[in-house]
Structures are given as structure tokens and as C-alpha cells.
Amino acid sequence: MTALVTQTDAAARSESRASVEVRLEDLRRQYGSVHALDGLNLTIGAGELVALLGPSGCGKTTALRLVAGLEDADGGRVVIGGRDVTLLPANRRDAGMVFQAYSLFPHMTARQNVAFGLRMRKVASRERLRRAGEMLELVGLAAQSDRYAHQLSGGQQQRVALARALAIRPSVLLLDEPLSALDAKVRSQLRDEIRRVQLEVGTTTLFVTHDQEEALAIADRVGVMRAGRLEQLAPPTTVYTQPATAFVAEFVGLTNRLSGVVRGGAVEVRGVRIPLIAAGGADGPAVALVRPEAVSLSAATDTATGPLLGTVIALAFLGASSRVTVDLGDAVVLVQIPTADAVAYPAGTRVRVALRLDPVLITRDDATVTP
Amino acid sequence: MNRRRHRRLQLFRTIVLVVLGIFFLVPIGAMVEFSTRGVGINSPRTLSSFTSIFSYPDLTGAIVASLELAAITSAAMLLLLLPTMVWVRLRVPRMVRVIEVLCLAPLTIPAIVLVVGLAPLYQWININLSDSILTLGFAYLILVLPYAYRSLDAGLSGVDVRTLSEAARSLGAGWATVVSRIIVPNMSSAVLNACLLSVAVVLGEFTIANLLNFENLQVAIATIGRANAGVSIAVAVASLLFVFVLLLALSFVSRSGSRRRRVRVGVT
Ligand SMILES: Nc1ncnc2c1ncn2[C@@H]1O[C@H](COP(=O)(O)OP(=O)(O)O)[C@@H](O)[C@H]1O
Ligand SMILES: [Mg+2]
């Protein structure tokens, strides 16, 4: 079994063409008065997987469709492997696409589906079927080759769709929320599977999602989008620990909004001076964005912790860690601590709250972002 | 209570079926009876009316012309309508209503009015292009649009045209391939239906051909009817039978298509 897999892996690698860089330059697209894309710049390195993350309606799908050629740009360029393809129609772009909706051709078997792109490229029948079989094996569906779409589960259909997109050895692989129609368990399995396959074939990939966990788990770099523009493009850990803007901080992971005062390069929140991620900005009132895991709890009697007292109003068990909601009287904070510690604070307990001195981001607007 | 209601419904259905059956079958039966009558009062039944169909060269010519017209019209209808409907749905969805109204318009225009409009056009066509009866195909194309549109529209709404065509295009298929290899196979029964309706309309058309002085099947039947009623009715029965057989054949074709898929379900 292992030998078999390694052999196909080697075959897939040796046959795949060299990965290329994909550039989106100042892309613009307008629908009526809506700027779906408002000057999007993004460079995806050869063989890299970039996840585009953002709330619904921020232009992720539009960006993907412009790269695929399924939609025309109002301005800007798409450059794939150094070649400007902005004016090429979709069928000559060499972009493999996996859609959010199930998109297998219902009248063809899985194998015929995967072979379709090769047929369009006039690959001889034997070679076509051989390669289709190989791709199906790559996504673990060799045994289901002769099934029709309606005989496959949702997850299997998306695997076939992935095999079909990769069979043409595209210069760029585009995935538009391919997991959003699946249930949670299948979703995380297939997510890891997509990453494995992508690393194996080394195709430059753009993965669109509105699910931050998915983006952080799968990507080399995450691009957070907002209203048709890129807010931040960075590796997952950077996006999480050093968000470039308040929007990114609030969209990726949970944050507490705690009001304070900026003074001399730090923000003072309820008597605690917390350093800032990005220095600068005038002194004055501001809102500090504090991660739940940067807050800790201790017993109300433990006066060494600090002066901040509150009452636990909810305790949510998340597995290894738990989320405690504490009412401070004039504000509510979310606290994420190990479950073993959290059991000491059932709802109604008086607790002392301490803020860790991790650098934080501040914002001066009062708008909240709902992911 | 429920059972009685059920029985009453059953009875109602049977009555409707019988009444409608009589309504359709009596005239056809009468036609068969009339067309197989012998010459004398007590002479035995004969098929001579049917066999003598082929002794009227005008008639066989008209039959061939009508069949050709049916084929031409169906093909032209598919080539014109299907890509247009797909394209409009994908690229200019706000025009869907307009296309629908355009396609359904011929239903609201009486054939006589249509002829008044077409006559000068045909005069020009007959002089400058061709005076073949096959030029009637243009007029018939207009005539079958409403029926074909309805059928294709129903078929298209059962297919996720957008996603499938985008998937096919991203795999390298051009528009012609998308329509012929992806969309048509997934709505084959709607396509067959549209063709069948077109064939039926063309084979039954009389007014336009007659007024434009072309001898198609129905015109020929009417002409012969004046000379020999038996043969004329025999041709009418034969054309009815022909359409009936065609319908049956087409429904078998589409059924065997879906059965093939169903059998595979059983195998896996
Ligand atoms: N075909 C379209 N017609 C009109 N507006 C559209 C169309 N496609 C997208 N939009 C608008 O463009 C914006 C971005 O859409 P989209 O790229 O689909 O967002 P996302 O995929 O991030 O949810 C949205 O406001 C959406 O309403
Ligand atoms: Mg989308």
C-alpha cells in the first residue's frame, strides 16, 4: 500500500509542470454602484497556497472569478506565470476551479468527469483514462471511478471536483469555499486532504473562505479582505498575533473591546498599561482589542492579582479549553482558559480579572465587526 | 369515509378517461372505417385507399417535403433557440423575459395575419433566393418557437446551467462544446420534446402553406379529398399513425436513457 502511494506521488510530481507565480494587480470590478473589487493587489508565490478570508460580500468570489476568466475586470491585470491573461477567455486560461456548489457533470461518471478537461486538450483516450485514474487515486477515490455524481456523498463529489481541476495540470488552482456545503467532520478532513494534495502536486493555489479556522489551518499566507480590498496579507500566525488593523483582529479570532486611554506608546485599561502592537497615534481615549486568551482569572480573595473584580455569567466548555464570560459591571469580557482551571469558576462566582501584557491593537471607531 | 371518497375519485377518473377516450377514438375509428370501405354497398373491406397513396406522385412529393420540413425546422429551432437561451440565462439574465415574450408571440398571432406579413417576404425570397417548398422552413421556425421555448425552458430550469457551464469552461471547453456536451445531455428529454412538438406542428400545418401556394402534406390531403375522399382520409390516418409511432419511439428512447442510469445504481 505504502509503496503504491509513493509511486503515484512520484509520478504526480514528476509529471506536474513547474509551479508559477500568480499576480492580481489593482483589480477592479463594479456591479452597479457596488464596488465588489476596489483595487485588489495580491501576489501568490509559485506553489504557494494563499487563503482569501473575509466576510460574505467582501469580493472573494469576484476575485476568484476574475482570475478564472469567468468575469471580466473593469480595471487591473491578472498575470499568470509572467503572462498577462486579463483578456483571455476562461477556456484558455489554464485555471482549475473547484466550486462551492456541487459541479460534477451529472451524466458522466467520476472518471469521465476527471477526464473531461484532458479530452478538451485532445489527449488520447488511453492516456486520458490513465491520468484520470491516477488523479482519482490521488484523492482516494479509485474505487468510486465508475459512479455518477448522485451516487457519491458531498465530500466525495468535492474530491472528484478537485481531481478534475488538477487533471489538466493547471497553472493555478482556484477553490471557492469548496467545503462550505459539507458537515463539520468531513469539512476538516477534506481541508487537510486538499492541503496534502496541493503540497504533493505543488500547484499555486488561491483558496477562498469565510471561515477563519479553515484559512488559518490550510494556508501558507492568509489574505484578509474587506470591501473589495486586501486588509492584510501574512502567514496565519502573524495575522492572528499581529493583526494589521482592528478589522483583521476582530474578524480573525475573538476579541474583547475594552475602553482605555492611550498615553506614551501604551494603552491604559482599567489601571493596566498594555503595550501597543503598532506605536503611533495621538494620545487620547481608545478601545483596546484584547484576545480572550490574554485574560486570566483568579479567586476574588486573591488580592495580589489586581483590583479588577467581576462576576462569572457563563461558562462554555470547548474541549481542552473553556470560555468564561465575566461581567465587570460596565463591560463584559470573554476569557479563554484551560478547562481544568475553568471548573473553579461556575456562573455566579466573584472573580478577579487580570490582563496579560501582550501587545494589543487599538481602534478609535466604535463599529463592531460581525464575522 | 376515506375509502368511499377514494372509490368516488376512482369512478370519476374512469368516467373522464372513457369520455375523453370516446371523444378522441370515435373520429379516428370513423376515419379508419371510411378509408377501408369498398366501392359497392356490400363489398368487403379493402386497403386500396392506403395502397393507392403511392400512385399520386403529388402526394408522395408532398409527404417527402413535409418530412423534410419537419427535420429542417427541428434542427434550425435547436440551433437557434438552445444557444440563445443558454447565453441569455448566463450573460444577460434581465433579457430572459424579453426572449420569452418574443418566443411566445407567435401563439397570439393568427396564421392569416402571419401570412399577410410573410407574403411579400416570400415573394421576394421566391424570386431572388429559391422557390423551393423548403423555404417554408423559415415560417415554420416562427410557428414552432412557442412550443419549443416552453419545453426547452422547462428542461433548462432542471439543470444548474451556470455552475456546469463554468466548470466546463474552466476545463477548456468552448461555448459550442458546453452546449452540445454538457447542457444537452442533461436535458435530453426536453430537447426530444421540443423536436417532437416541432415535428407535430409542421406535419399538421395547413394555412400558411396553402395561402403561400405550397403543396405540403395537409394541402395535398385537402386537394385529393376533393377528388378521392377515401385516399385523403387514408393519408390523414397514416400521418396520425406516423406521429403516434414517432411519439412512442421518442418516449422509449428517453426512458431507456434513464433506465441505463438506474441500472448502474443497482450495480454499485
Ligand atoms: N452578478 C452580480 N450582480 C450584482 N452584484 C454582484 C454580482 N456578483 C457579486 N455581486 C456583489 O458584489 C459583492 C461581492 O460579491 P462576492 O464576490 O460574491 O462576495 P463574497 O464571495 O466575498 O461573498 C457583493 O456585494 C455582491 O452583492
Ligand atoms: Mg462567495
Write up this protein.
The complex is a heterodimer of chains A (371) and B (268). The longest helix of chain A has 18 residues, at 184-201. The two termini of chain A are 43 Å apart. Chain A has two domains: 18-244, Rossmann fold; 254-363, Beta Barrel (OB fold (Dihydrolipoamide Acetyltransferase, E2P)), CATH 2.40.50. In chain A, 28% of the residues lie in helices and 33% in strands. Chain A has helices at 2-15, 60-68, 110-120, 125-138, 154-167, 184-201, 212-218, 236-241, 246-251, 339-342, and strands spanning 22-31, 34-44, 49-53, 75-80, 83-84, 95-98, 172-176, 204-209, 221-226, 229-234, 256-263, 266-269, 272-275, 284-290, 295-299, 309-317, 321-327, 332-338, 350-355, 361-363. Chain A is built from ten helices and 20 strands. Chain A is α+β, with helices and mostly antiparallel strands. Chain A is elongated, with a radius of gyration of 24 Å. In chain A, strands 6-7-8-3-9-10 form a six-stranded mixed beta sheet, sandwiched between helices. With 268 residues, chain B is mainly α. Chain B is built from twelve helices and no strands. In chain B, helix 3 (57-91) packs across helix 6. The two termini of chain B are 45 Å apart. Adenosine-5'-diphosphate binds at residues 31, 34, 36, 54, 56-62 of chain A.
